[in-house]
Write a structure and sequence with these properties.
single chain, 146 residues, mainly alpha, 7 helices
C-alpha cells in the first residue's frame, strides 16, 4: 500500500519536473510564447511545444509510477488524479473572463503577469487532460510490460 502511494507521488513529481523543463525555453524567450509584446495571444509553436511537453511528462509519470509501484494499479490512480486535476483546471479556465487590458498595459507587463491574466483557448484546456490520461496509461504500460 505504501509503495503504491509513493509510486503515485513520484509519478506526479516526475510529471511536474518534465513540464518545468519543457517550459524553461519559454522563460528565456518570451517572443516564443506571445505573438507580440502587446498581445496575450500565444504562438502556435508554444502551443505545440506545451502539448508535446505534456505528453512526455505524462509518459514519464506513468513509467515512474509503474516502476516504483511494480504494478499497473498505481498508474490507474495517477491517471485518474491527473485527469481530474486537469479537467478541474480546464473548467476553471472556461470561467475566467477575457482580460480587458489595453495593448500598452500588456506591453508593460512581465512574462509572469501576462501568464496570470491570460486565458487558454478552451480546446487547449480540455485537450491537455486527455493527453495526460493517455500518456500516463501508455507510460505505465511501457514499464509494466518489461
Amino acid at each position: 500500500m505504501l509503495r503504491s502511494i509513493v509510486a503515485v507521488i513520484a509519478g506526479y513529481v516526475a510529471m511536474f519536473l518534465v513540464v518545468m523543463i519543457g517550459f524553461a525555453p519559454a522563460a528565456i524567450a518570451p517572443s516564443f510564447v506571445w505573438r507580440g509584446q502587446d498581445t496575450l495571444d500565444l504562438t502556435t509553436g508554444f502551443v505545440v511545444t506545451t502539448l508535446l511537453a505534456s505528453l512526455l511528462a505524462a509518459l514519464a509519470g506513468g513509467y515512474v509510477c509503474a516502476w516504483i509501484g511494480r504494478s499497473f494499479k498505481p498508474v490507474i490512480v495517477l491517471a485518474a488524479l491527473a485527469t481530474l486535476l486537469g479537467l478541474t483546471m480546464a473548467i476553471q479556465n472556461t470561467k475566467k473572463e477575457q482580460p480587458s487590458v489595453t495593448p500598452d498595459k500588456i506591453a508593460a507587463m512581465s512574462y509572469m503577469e501576462k501568464g496570470q491574466i491570460s486565458r487558454e483557448p478552451d480546446w487547449y484546456a480540455f485537450t491537455t487532460p486527455v493527453i495526460c490520461l493517455v500518456g500516463v496509461l501508455l507510460g505505465g504500460k511501457l514499464r509494466v510490460t518489461k
